[in-house]
Design brief:
Elements (H helix, E strand, L loop, with lengths): L5 E4 L1 H7 L6 E6 L2 E4 L5 E2 L12 E4 L2 E7 L2 E3 L4 E3 L4 E3 L14 H4 L7 E9 L8 H8 L2 H7 L9 E4 L5 H9 L7 E3 L5 E10 L12 H11 L13 E4 L13 H9 L3 E3 L6 H9 L3 E5 L14 E6 L7 H7 L4 E6 L10 H13 L1
Parallel strand pairs: 1-9, 4-18, 10-11, 10-13, 11-12, 14-15, 14-16, 16-17, 17-18
Antiparallel strand pairs: 2-6, 3-5, 6-13, 7-8, 7-13
C-alpha cells in the first residue's frame, strides 16, 4: 500500500546480490561507443557547444526475469517482489534514488494482478513520440536478442495506449492490442513473471545507438510501402498550431516554401504509416526543434536544418541523424524564443541555405 521498502538499485546489482529478486539476467548488447562522425554545421549563427560532443558511452543491455514483478505508473517504476525499485529502468527525470516518485507517494494505487508473462515497454516519457520510438519499442529488439529466451509474452505493458502512434506501431508489428496493458488506465499491475529489457540509452539520454535505428527501419519500412502514392521530397515540419513551443509560420513564409518546392507537414496529424512513408522519401527536412524530427530515422541520407531558440538547444536529432548518414545543419536564433524571428529573417536564412 505504501512506497517501496528497499532502496533502489540497478538490475545488474540486484541480479548479483539477490537471485530471488532477479533469477535471470540475460545479455543482449555489449557496451560500446556511439560516434557522431559527421559534423553539425551552424547556419547563420555562432557554433553551439551542444554539437561539439562527438561520442557517447553505450551501456550494455539485458533482459531480466522478475518473478511477481510489478510496474507502477505514470512515472514508471519497476518493482521487485522484495519491494525494491530497479533504478536503471525506473526514471523520474530530475529525481534520483530515494527521491523517485514511487518513494515520494504516501499511498500507491491498488495493484491489479495478472496471470502469465509480461514484457515491459513502458518507460517514463514513452507517451511522447521520440521516446516511444527510441526508448520503448527498441526494447522488443533487446528481448528478441537476449540469449536463452524462447517464450512469447502473454501481456505487453506500455505507458499510454491512448496515443495513436502507439496503437498503430504495435498493430504493424502484429501485437494484439487486447493483450496490451496501459499504465495510464491501470497504474499499478503485477504479473507471475515480469520480463524487463534495459533501456537502449542510459537514462533515456537521447543518444540512440545505431542498432535502434536498424531495428526500427527493418521493422517498419517493409510494412509501410504504399504503391502509387506521391510524396514530397522537401519537407517543412510545422509547429505553428502546437500547444507548446509554437513556431509561427506567416503567410509570406508559406508562400516562399511553396515556391521552393517545400511541403508544409504536421506529422502529429498523420497516421503512423503515412509518417513512415513520407519521411522514407524525404531528401530535405527543415523546421523548428520538435518530435517530428524523430521520423528522419526512416530517411536515407537526408539534408537537415533544425531551428532552435537560444534557451532550448538539444542535440538529440543530431545524434539520430548520424545513424542515417544525414547532412545536419542547425540555426540557433538570437532572440529569447522561437517567436523572436521575423519572417524576413527566416526567408533570408532559407534562401541562403537552399541556394548553397
Amino acid at each position: 500500500m505504501g512506497p517501496p521498502r528497499l532502496a533502489p538499485a540497478k538490475m545488474v546489482e540486484v541480479a548479483t546480490d539477490s537471485k530471488s529478486e532477479i533469477p535471470d539476467l540475460l545479455p543482449a548488447h555489449p557496451a560500446g561507443r556511439i560516434l557522431r562522425n559527421r559534423p553539425a554545421r551552424p547556419l547563420a549563427c555562432a557554433p553551439h557547444p551542444a554539437f561539439d560532443i562527438l561520442s557517447a558511452f553505450q551501456t550494455p543491455t539485458f533482459l531480466a526475469r522478475i518473478p511477481r514483478g510489478r510496474v507502477l505508473g505514470p512515472t514508471v517504476a519497476v518493482i521487485t517482489a522484495a519491494d525494491r525499485v530497479l533504478a536503471d529502468v525506473s526514471l523520474d527525470w530530475g529525481h534520483l534514488g530515494l527521491d523517485h516518485y514511487a518513494y515520494r507517494r504516501l499511498k500507491l494505487p491498488r495493484c491489479r494482478e495478472f496471470r502469465g508473462n509480461a514484457l515491459v515497454l513502458a518507460c517514463t516519457g514513452s507517451d511522447t513520440y521520440f521516446h516511444w520510438m527510441t526508448d520503448a519499442l527498441p526494447r522488443l529488439a533487446i528481448a528478441a536478442k537476449a540469449k536463452g529466451v524462447t517464450w512469447n509474452p502473454d501481456w505487453w505493458v506500455v505507458s499510454d495506449m491512448d496515443k495513436s502512434f502507439v496503437r498503430e506501431s504495435l498493430q504493424l508489428m502484429g501485437i494484439p492490442l487486447s493483450r496490451v496493458i496501459s499504465l495510464s488506465r491501470q497504474p499499478h499491475v503485477c504479473f507471475d513473471q515480469l520480463w524487463v529489457p534495459s533501456l537502449p540509452c542510459e537514462s533515456s539520454s537521447g543518444d540512440p545507438p545505431p542498432w535502434v535505428v536498424d531495428f526500427l527501419r527493418s521493422t517498419f519500412l517493409p510494412r509501410t510501402e504504399v504503391a502509387g502514392m506521391e510524396w514530397a521530397s522537401r519537407l517543412w515540419i510545422d509547429r505553428s498550431e502546437n500547444t507548446s513551443r509554437v513556431y509561427p509560420l506567416p503567410p509570406e513564409q508559406r508562400q516562399l516554401l511553396k515556391k521552393l518546392g517545400i511541403r508544409v507537414v504536421r506529422p502529429e496529424t498523420m497516421s503512423f504509416r503515412d509518417q513512415v512513408c513520407l519521411f522514407s522519401r524525404a531528401a530535405v527536412c527543415i523546421g523548428p526543434h520538435g518530435a517530428g524530427f524523430t521520423n528522419i530515422l526512416f530517411s536515407h541520407r537526408p539534408i537537415l536544418l533544425e531551428i532552435f531558440p537560444p534557451d532550448r538547444v538539444n542535440a538529440c536529432y543530431y545524434s539520430l541523424s548520424q545513424c542515417v548518414d544525414a547532412q545536419y545543419h542547425y540555426h540557433v536564433e538570437a532572440g529569447t524564443s522561437l517567436l523572436s524571428s521575423t519572417a524576413r529573417e527566416i526567408h533570408e536564412t532559407l534562401l541562403t541555405w537552399i541556394r548553397s
